[in-house]
Amino acid sequence: MSENTGEIRTMRWYVVHTYSGHENKAKLSLLDRVRQAGMDARFGEVLIPTETVNELVKGQKRSTTRKFFPGYMFVQMEMDQETFHLVKNTPKITGFLGGTNPQPVKENEIQTLADGSPKAKSRVSFDEGETVRVIEGPFANFSGEIIEVKADKEKVRVNLSIFGRATPVELEFRQVEKTG
Predict the structure, then answer these.
(1) pTM (2 d.p.)
(2) Three-state SS for 85?
(3) Who's near 28: CB < 8 A, 6+ residues apart?
(4) Beta-strand (E) ranges in the chain?
(5) Could you report the per-residue pLDDT of 50-76, keeping only the tens digit for each?
(6) Under a CB-based contact definition with an 8 Å cutoff, are residues 70 and 21 in contact?
């Protein structure tokens, strides 16, 4: 919150549309333009909500960062004609969500996005009853049916046929692949 020309202004969050895949460049461009224009006091944070996703690529576990809203970022700012045009005329930014009359986003919604997901999510999903093949470990090349999925631990419980008997075995997601 700052005082300017005697009135009290508050910073609010606005949704800004960017070129998809250029959110980070747009953020850097905007922060650079704000600094050059000397408007640091009228802008707050710039948020690009992301989450970490674990995935299997060729049997290797890999973590990647995924944007919640590709092509969008959130800017905390005092809205007036000068700040509106500074944001709108920034390279890689196409405008505000809402056009010439952008509506602020509620603070609690931004807080939810900023908190993000503390734990990485897995991109691979399994369902009970699916048939999988073990690709790693002492049970490599065994096939079986999933009887339980523990998504939070990224593990599955699989009934493997060992010596002709169905034996439940707990395996990590990365140790199995879907067969059907």
Answers:
(1) 0.62
(2) helix
(3) none
(4) 2-4, 7-9, 12-18, 43-47, 50-57, 60-67, 72-77, 93-96, 121-122, 131-134, 143-150, 155-162, 165-172, 176-178
(5) 888 777 777 677 888 888 889 999 999
(6) yes
